[in-house]
Amino acid sequence: MGQVFVLDHPLIQHKLTYIRDKHTGTKEFRELVDEVAMLMAFEITRNLPLQPKTIETPVVETESSVLAGKKIGLVPILRAGLGMVDGMLKLIPAAKVGHVGLYRDPKTLQPVEYYIKLPSDIEERELIVIDPMLATGGSANDAIHSLKKRGAQNIRLMCLIAAPEGVEVIKKDHPDVDIYLGALDEKLDEKGYIIPGLGDAGDRLFGTK
Length: 209
Ligand code: PRP
Ligand code: URA
Description:
Pathway: Pyrimidine metabolism; UMP biosynthesis via salvage pathway; UMP from uracil: step 1/1
Strand content: 25-35%
Radius of gyration: 18 Å
Bound molecules: 1-O-pyrophosphono-5-O-phosphono-alpha-D-ribofuranose, uracil
GO cellular component, one term: cytoplasm
Cofactor: Mg(2+)
Largest sheet: 9 strands, mixed
Helix content: 25-40%
Shape: globular
Keywords: Allosteric enzyme, Glycosyltransferase, GTP-binding, Magnesium, Nucleotide-binding, Transferase
InterPro entries: PRTase-like, PRTase_dom, Upp_B, UPRT, UPRTase/APRTase
């Protein structure tokens, strides 16, 4: 069964408070999302395998460690997932980046896929699907199905904020996918917004309405 990790590091919680605050403007919101994505990347990469490497320091020869060449792929869900890409790339600069374009139909809340472009070797990569919000779970669920259909074997999901409803959907449909969250909120409202949440992540990131 996939595990759910809430990355409740104090810096993440502090920054999330300002991200949630409706008085935080677009510029600061964007910067904070970028910073939290970087901090979450630090946590999510904790278990990457290492391999030994012999080097010479200026003083002696010694055996040290380097990453064992695990190939990572980031897959932001457009459009709000884009806001987390640069922050993650600061820590994992060699990661390839695929894109899945989805939006929620405002009436049905069902995800509609309008774009997909992925690295050619996704079956060999550890893929991290990124989206600030996991609400009904429809968008992430659909994105993960799309990736699996195209051969993805190892997928993790990383979101700033989730509702319990969305987490349950992913756990049920994708028990092989671990979920990493900045916060697990209370519930969804009747329009499918996360409560307390942060409002519409895409609109707040890009200054649209
Ligand atoms: C938001 C968000 C997620 C989705 C979550 O995207 O970024 O992708 O809603 O909701 P769900 O779990 O109920 O599917 P939105 O549809 O607003 O599109 P946008 O990123 O283009 O603004
Ligand atoms: N999408 C968002 O951007 N915010 C929510 O609260 C739910 C879905």
